[in-house]
Amino acid sequence: MAIASFLSDSMALLGQITLQPGPVAASVAAITVIAFAGRLLLPRSEPALAFGAGMGGLILVGTAFGVAGIDLRFGLGAIAAAAAAALIRDRRELGAWAGIGLPVLVVALPLLLLLSDRRGSEWDEFSHWLHAFRYVQTNHAVPGGPWAPVMDTCCAAYPYGWPMVGLAAMTLSGFSEAVPALLNVLLLALFAMLLAGLARDDSSRRLTLPAAAVALLAATVASPTFVHKLAFSAYADVATAFLAAVLALLGEKVAGGGDRRFRGRWALIFGLTGAALMSVKPGNAALFGCILGGSLLLALRREGWRGLFQIHWLVMVLPPALVSGLWRWHVDHHLAGREMAIQPMDQWHVAQIPQILRAMLDVAGNKGGYFGLSLVMVVLGLRGFLRDRDRLDRLCAMAGLVFLGYNLFLLVTYVVVFGDYEALHVASYWRYNTHLGLVIMLPAAMLVGRGLERGKHSVAARLLRRLAVVLVLVGPVLVVGQIRFDHDRSKPFLRQSLHMAGQMIPWGEHAVVIDPQGSGVSGVMASYEWSGRVKVDSFMSAFSRGEAHAWLDAQTAHWAFVYSGQANLSLEPVNAVFLLHREGTVWAVIGQFPFPEGKSPDRWP
Prior knowledge:
By secondary structure, this protein is mainly alpha-helical. It contains 25 helices and five strands. The protein has helices at 2-14, 21-39, 47-68, 72-89, 94-114, 123-139, 161-173, 179-200, 209-219, 228-231, 237-257, 263-278, 284-303, 312-335, 353-366, 368-387, 391-416, 420-424, 429-433, 437-454, 459-478, 480-483, 490-504, 521-529, 548-553; strands at residues 510-514, 535-540, 559-562, 576-583, 586-594. A hairpin with a 2-residue loop joins strand 4 (576-583) and strand 5 (586-594). Helix 11 packs parallel to helix 13 (284-303). The relative contact order is 0.10.
């Protein structure tokens, strides 16, 4: 009975999905063009590494153009020209790239199509990320400066590397809220190609469909830090994890693991990928520092102090420093006060460090798969650092060093940046650690690959490969509810109601949102749905203090959107959403929107 109900729900949800090939094709084209642009620098075909270099080039040019007030599409043109040059130069290698990329794209296609008409549904999408993607696509610029419109978001000072990649796709498809999720899946597909190469110790061999399916599963649901609400949304966590993994692999190459003839070129690609990483999220500077530090320690282990005084280390740091410096100047002059900052020393949580450490350990205990694997990598990394026998040793050492360094950084952040509640509850500690998940998977893929190599012709291995193909092709349909969580019953209705209410409010007016039973997502949704039309002054949620009537009367805005708490405001019927307008001292109902099927939500978003 339970299985029948589950299948019935899945089929019903599938009936609500409209396949949109346009955003899928545009996202694939954007990833391909950026990877070909990066291929111009690579000594051999490695799609994931090529994309890291290409994205760094796009962001370097895009940031310079954005700060100067030049249309960002000129930067896309420069990247397209570099991709065309690489395509002409390496046209004989197209077969090799197709032999690696097409099998992975085929097995990822069902997932991509299921996401092709996705709409935003999560808090941070509405507080910043969708604002940023829509802004760069509409204005072809970054916020700040006298020439740029204001962007109504909590984090306007965030760097715009991730939305710039979205712009590359949406220049072809037009604005689509599905594009960021599609790009996330394609980055995981690139990582699957990388894992397959590591597992076989050969990144140039063609992939069979079963091998592609196994690699894609390893990059997604089999990864200990895979979180569907991060991967299938506009969040930048997958992009961060992907670039960190690529950077760790490049760091191992520069530190002596790669061909010495190409060390300078690997260093430049490291620098460009580092620029991309640091331009995705502000905190990624710490990730870059940890990976750079790990690379320096590996070089010190292999070559002694002499290895640390070579020109390629400057090349590794210069592109990230240039991008960060440009953006820092822009923020200081045009966007100051729109980002997190270090607290005054008298507000640091030094005395609470033992409590913070206990809270971190509690989270680690609840996520034993990832933290257990990371602990194994720390142990193997220590052994690998001491003996330095092969690439596996160096990657284990890199993974262990980055894990320890980044978690030390997070501890310091909880002490000096976060407020009392966030620090003592180690806010988002697990989410931040997902940024390391793909780094940890690099040596894990080599270990698993060596084990599978011994039994690759066994009956069990053949069955596993066939099962992997079935899972990647049919699995997304069976678990479509986990993929399309944006179809949660309450959120589409909330967005629709906000949109209709926004059309009823005169242009330029101010409004508040009342939702005392919700998390506050209705407030950030309103800021997105009404952006450029109505200003959201404030919103009331379950975390707000005070009684709804008194709170509403204290507001200066003349419009109010009521999503929950109708009874407290003496509004009837209670199974509807209301738009109110203040006339003198009296609030009048301007519009009401009944909940689906006339039922109030069982839980409030």
